[in-house]
Amino acid sequence: MNKKRINPIYGLPLLMLLLNISCVPLKKSIYLQGEIAKDLAEIESQYLSDKKPYVVKPNDNLYIQINSLDERTSSFLNNESGATTRIESPMSASLVGYRVESDGNINFPFVGKVYVASLTLDEVRDKIQDVVSRYIEESSVTVKLLNDNITILGEVRAPGRYLLYDEEINVIEALSLAGDATDFANKKKIRLIRREGEDHQMIVLNTLDDRLMFSPYYYLKPGDIIYVEPRRLKSVQLSSAPLTLALALINTSLLLYTFYITNFDD
Known about the structure:
The protein is α+β, with helices and mostly antiparallel strands and 266 residues long. It folds into 2 domains: 115 residues, Outer membrane lipoprotein wza fold like (Roll); 85 residues, wza like domain (wza like fold, 2-Layer Sandwich). The chain is built from 7 helices and 13 strands. The strands form 4 sheets. Strands 2-11-10-12-8-9 form a 6-stranded mixed beta sheet, covered by helices on one side. Strands 4-3-7 form a 3-stranded antiparallel beta sheet, with helices on both faces. Strands 1-13 form a two-stranded antiparallel ribbon. Strand 10 and strand 11 form a beta hairpin. Helix 1 packs antiparallel against helix 7. The radius of gyration is 30 Å and the shape is elongated.
């Protein structure tokens, strides 16, 4: 009785499948590579929280609302569109606020220029309150930052630019805005890109480390960019086109195998 010989063609589908696995180097999928990024663990006083209030700067957009029992008088000092327009995007926010000019002033109705740069929001409120009190008795002032937005990119489910409605938001809350990190996200390497005046910082955060909550980088600032790096697992993936070809080869090989054992099997 003759022994059945295995045709080499049977191993071809597996070989083709292995050759068609698309290997994407991880280095080619990470933004902003280089030596600028500093790991939080390398920074002196890394976990000493020194949270400071936000300081107004030129090009900021401020929401200022005057409240008074004398509605007729207070309406002259209010941006009426700001009182009636719902702020849903950076574009709508720019239409209802007071832009801080390059010289640090805002143009306030019937008052003129008011210098607000280098002041905290509470200090701006107090300053506007002093001005308004000259015209309206028993009034109150509300001041909020309208350009309070962040950008979230990388391995998150809904990357984009987000307008914030809370004056305090941390890194974890920011990720939740973008639908949380994907299964391919490297949660040990979350890049925080921040501009401080003319300087830029890039800090690598480990969101798996609970000490992050005591870091000055835990809470975000307006204009921050969050980039979630991918894990190495994503660097090796099956390409849809080669996979389809491999399945077609397997199907053809099975047909050839059936033909062989039907016509040449002793």
